[in-house]
Amino acid sequence: MRTPALGGISPRITGKQTMNGFIFYRGKSPIDNAPLIGIATLESDNRKTGNLIQTWILREDISPTMARSIGEDRSFCGDCSVRDACYVNWGQAPSSIWHAYHRGGYVDLRRKPSMMRRIVSGRVVRMGAAGDPAMIPLQHWLRVLEGADGWTGYSHQWKHPWAQPMRELTMASVESLEDQDLARSMGWRTYRIRRQDEPLEFNEIACPSDTTGRKCIDCVACDGALKPSAASVAIVVHGSRASKW
């Protein structure tokens, strides 16, 4: 984790092929045993996060939009308390990535950890641009993150016993002070959504995107409980969620 970058390597070119991303996981959802895939894409124009490596946890057998429409998104989003105010546009990037996967658009690196390490080296990884990171077991994330300069991650699955190993890498997403207290008692750092008029709690900082416009790639505060004394983070509700809060 956060090992020195390997200099002089251009990870996006493999032979004659330009690599847009790679497959790092195929397995079953801990929620319902549905088939899941984990895809990492290498370039992003997300203005809030910056150019992180973005990772996507999706159903393998049905498109994200179909999964949302028939309630099968629980396989990869789990028990998300803000499902109806989700900020992800499932018909855009997640859908495009799902279709690209089925066209063979991503290199399968599940058995090539050294190549994965070289690609990720010196980069910051966003765990779960869509889908909940806890749906993929910890050991697979450790392979992705080896050599990375940092990562960010959030999970709404923090109450489940099977999700507990993920507290080392991800923040517990909470929407109430009661849940924040419970998550902290279980060893998680928290990422809390708050109203503009709500004060910060003990050992909690305002998300720098609120206060200074700092991008996630330059902050990396939301990296779990490997540093248990680090402050938790709170962000003012924004975007599509604001009207529903």
Helices, strands, pairings?
Layout: E1 13-14, E2 17-18, E3 21-28, E4 35-41, E5 53-59, H1 64-69, H2 74-77, H3 93-102, E6 107-108, H4 113-120, E7 124-130, H5 138-145, E8 150-155, E9 171-174, H6 177-185, E10 190-194, E11 204-206, H7 208-211, H8 216-219, E12 232-236
Parallel strand pairs: 3-6, 5-7, 7-8, 8-9, 9-10, 10-12, 11-12
Antiparallel strand pairs: 1-2, 3-4, 4-5
What would you note in describing this structure?
The protein is of the alpha/beta class and 245 residues long. It is built from eight helices and twelve strands. The strands form two sheets. It has a ten-stranded mixed beta sheet with strand order 6-3-4-5-7-8-9-10-12-11, with helices on both faces. A two-stranded antiparallel ribbon has the order 1-2. The longest helix has 10 residues, at 93-102. The radius of gyration is 17 Å and the shape is globular. The protein starts with 12 loop residues before the first strand and ends in a 9-residue tail after the last strand.
Number of strands: 12
Largest sheet: 10 strands, mixed
How large, in whole angstroms, is the Cα Rg? 17 Å
List the helices and strands in order.
EEEEEHHHEHEHEEHEEHHE
**What gap, in angstroms, lies between the N and C termini?**
37 Å
